[in-house]
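Subject: Sanity check before I submit

Could someone independently write out the structure tokens for this chain? I want to compare against mine line by line before I put it in a report. The sequence has 348 residues.
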Amino acid sequence: MNASVSRRSLLAGFGATAVSAALPGAPLPAADAGFIDVHHHHVPPTLAAAAAAYAAKTGTPVAGPIKDWTPEKSLATMDANGVATSVLVLANGTGIWDLNDPASLRRMARACNEYGAEMVRKHPGRYAFFAWLPMPDIAGALDEIAYALDHLGASGIGFYTSYGTRWAGDKAFTPIYDELHRRKAVAYYHPLAPACCNDLIPGVRDNYTEFPQDTARAVTSLLFNGQLATHRNIKWIFSHAGGPVPVYAGRIQALATPRDLDRIAPDGIVGELARLNFETANANYQPNIDAALDLVQDTQLVFGTDFPYVSVDSNVKSFGTLALSPELRRKITRENALRLIPGLPGGK
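---
Independent answer below. Compare away.
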């Protein structure tokens, strides 16, 4: 039984306690007591330059979060909100990455990953980073995995949920997952609006609906292509409390009828999905968290913010409104990340 059953029986007063503990403006906690933000974007100069070039080519402005990001702003908002350590996640590169130019992809990924490692070195204890790959270039991705994990000290590998017309579980990506399985590595997924569905509905921004839906597409792609079942050693993390996945899990199980179901889901559909890890960025609403904790154990939820697309301040405040016990709060904001992600300050 999931911990959410007993959690729901707790007094709502825990929510008030959490609010008072989360208010920003207090001095930064000791390094062994602050929040760990596992979804904190950075904008390496190489990516910023590519975004500016793409904007000039297409006539579209550079998104404010990319244009305005600086390390100083990142550290200042961490300090103001009690975030001890952030795991750097590459800013959204939709349209910037040329998926048909492997050489360009490799240069971009290498420069961005070296910048992430530099941030870690320059600010001891404050950052870790997920390395990004030159997907869908398989050979380049395998080279970058080795370089990032063995030489740069990356804490895991970051992916987008889709690349052009390929989603995360595409069988062409199996060699990448084989390597991450061998290494028992973290695989973190950030959603975007895929090629099929960019600006799909007039007046509805992609990050309202398409981003969370692409998380569901990525997860079901991994599930039904057998990647989840085959690569048991990978520690999978999905953004925004899993998007719609916790709500879809039972429906998918009820409808799934592939002939090889026993192979792709030996523990059942819900059993496979229940092995995933979720982070909380922009999902600190009681129904979202309740749904996530009805699917996964309370050791599988970690705190995130999506800075600078969403403020650290708003995530800390909204997390504080949740009806959570102090023990569960500590797990989500720090302890679970220390167990899940290698190389974090204070971890083993």
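---
OP: Matches mine. For the report I'm noting this point. Residues 1-32 have pLDDT under 50 and may be disordered.
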